[in-house]
Design brief:
Elements lengths: L2 E3 L6 E3 L4 E5 L11 H9 L7 E7 L7 E7 L5 E6 L7 H10 L10
Antiparallel strand pairs: 1-2, 3-4, 4-5, 5-6
Protein name: Sarcosine oxidase subunit delta
Pfam family, one: SoxD
InterPro entries: SoxD (IPR006279), SoxD_sf (IPR038561)
Length: 109
Amino acid sequence: MLMLECPYCGVLADETELAPGGEAHLTRHGPGSSDDDFQDYLFTRENPRGVHFERWRHAHGCGKWFHAARNTVTLEVYGTYPAQTTEPPKEVCAKITGAAPGWTWRLFG
């Protein structure tokens, strides 16, 4: 079972207390954007095998959104952090690098 710690209230919650919100760190495009940018925002996702960054909501707790870094193959959780963060914290990246040598953070479009 997937267990994530809410970075706001500190509760270690299982996935039944949480609501998934899709891929994290997307560039959101709205009114005034090009059709191609808006199409990419709606439909283009990474869906990697391995390290992945996701949005989660502590639905049956504090109700706040947060990001989680985890491995989609092993379900290992590298860390959670506030949703307002534009890129993963250095300590989360260091933990990922220790578990998956050669991994590098890349900017999402």
